[in-house]
What does this fold into?
Amino acid sequence: MNKKIKWILVSVIAAGAIGWGIYTQMPKQNAELTDADQVMKDRKKTKSKLNVNAVVLKNGTLTDEIQVTGLLLPDEEVDLSFETSGKVVAINFKEGAHVAKGQLLAKVNDRQLQAELKRLKAQEKLAMDRVYRQRALLQKDAVSQEAYEQVKTEYATLQAEIDAVKARIEQTELVAPFDGIIGLRQISVGAYASPSTVVSKLTRISPLKVEFSVPERYARDIKPGLPLDFNVDGHLTPFQAKVYAKESSIDPETHTLAVRALFPNSKGQLTPGRYASIRLTKEEIKNTIAIPAEAIVPEMGKDKVFLYKSGLAQPVEIKTGIRNESHVQVLKGLHIGDTLIVSGTLQLRTDLPVVLDHVN
It folds into this structure.
């Protein structure tokens, strides 16, 4: 082998080695990454469809309501106590029973007062006879006018003393000030009672008062005669009452207006002290479009909804009116017969393909 051929072989081998080194440093193609890239490209080319629910708009009635929490109060309630002090000698009521106005409920000892009244009554007849005699003598000019006036004054004074004793005897009697249900008694016969001693509680539960407060923005809407419904635990059927009075001013701390309504409670099915969930109906708007509140998407101070049109979601700006707990009145932007998308609203975009799962 001559020298020229030797150099040619060396050059070929060196070139091959350099080429192999360059090849080994080149990035290799990953089959999994290639497949993933292809999937992403396919997704970009084809938009995925979103399954949604929708409603077909039609005329309806929207009730403008106020919902608050209130408390059931008795029509009248009082802690019963004696007007005087003394030993209790009788208790004439049964706990939890109905009592009538004027009924004697309890009594303290009045023996001394009865004896005083008996003494005064005995003197009354004698004083009355003296007046008659003095009048007859005066007519015959047998006594002076002054003597006649004196016996008249003594008789009037005696009658005043009798009335005072009778009033003190009445103070020993505890009577019902109104019809109602009497509660549990707090004393026993033989106990010493004073005006500060509570004997029992008397409550009138028919009718009942329903007391609640409304935000100040509703103050002008609350008027006597306004109907309301309320629910209490343990009763599935709502009860009806009517507003009869409201406070004269708004509470400056809570910015609410206190209101009271009357519930007949003629059957005594409800008791005072219970909480009530109250719903006041301000007005009913008929022949209007009302949509579910969850269908509305607030965006930059405006409200919009999405309609289903030819398989795509199309946004529409709307103007709303009053609203209640679940629905909102639409004044502008929608029409009867439109198909309104009511689910998946946060995922909706303009011209997004959608599939209707359920339509009302």
